[in-house]
Specification:
Radius of gyration: 29 Å
Strand order of the largest sheet: 1-2-3-5-4
Number of helices: 4
Shape: rod-shaped
Strand content: 15-25%
Structural class: alpha+beta
Largest sheet: 5 strands, mixed, barrel
Order of helices and strands: HHHHEEEEE
Number of strands: 5
Length: 188
């Protein structure tokens, strides 16, 4: 502690920020890699207006605070002996802290590009062909079932037809979606 007491007050502040923030950052990193940290767990009391679908993540979060303080403190420590002008050193440290947040935004955006959306949407079945699983009565007089392949997986959907009776095994094409599990088909 005598070493810290002899330091310049600004350098001491940088060290007092850097040590706990680095520890929290290390814990966050380990938790992220083992899959425990799915969210920050801390909600801000104000709206950063980044909760819409295009936002990569919450702007005002505990993780971003840690990233900012990590960049700020270690830049201040690293350049303390190099830059004699203290306001310039603080400005550089703040800029690097903001840069850490922006770098995190860029990294998360690149990772999100790797994600694949495999959610089933009934609209994706339009104009797809499939086969009748359970016969479909003629002229919309009842429902049958069809199998259709979407995104590499088979889906079973209820189906109706405007035409003649479609027996099991018949090849069909989906021409219209009626609701989330019912489609209108025709024989191919």
């Amino acid at each position: 502690m005598d070493y810290f007491n002899t330091l310049d007050p600004l350098l001491r502040i940088f060290w007092f920020i850097a040590i706990p923030v680095s520890l929290v950052f290390a814990i966050q990193t380990v938790m992220t890699f083992i899959g425990i940290d799915s969210a920050d767990g801390i909600d801000a009391d104000f709206d950063g207006n980044l909760d819409h679908a295009d936002a990569p993540f919450q702007l005002f979060s505990f993780r971003n605070l840690i990233n900012f303080l990590l960049g700020l403190s270690w830049t201040g420590i690293s350049f303390f002996r190099v830059i004699d002008n203290k306001p310039l050193l603080i400005a550089l440290s703040v800029a690097v802290g903001i840069g850490f947040i922006l770098l995190f935004f860029v990294i998360i955006r690149q990772i999100q590009k790797l994600a694949e959306d495999n959610t089933f949407k009934i609209e994706s079945t339009l104009d797809k062909s499939g086969s009748v699983y359970l016969r479909i009565p003629a002229n919309r007089s009842g429902n049958g079932k069809i199998h259709v392949s979407i995104h590499g997986s088979f889906k079973e959907l209820d189906a109706i037809t405007d035409g003649e009776l479609l027996e099991s095994g018949a090849t069909i094409r989906i021409i219209k979606t009626i609701n989330q599990n019912l489609v209108l088909v025709e024989r191919i």
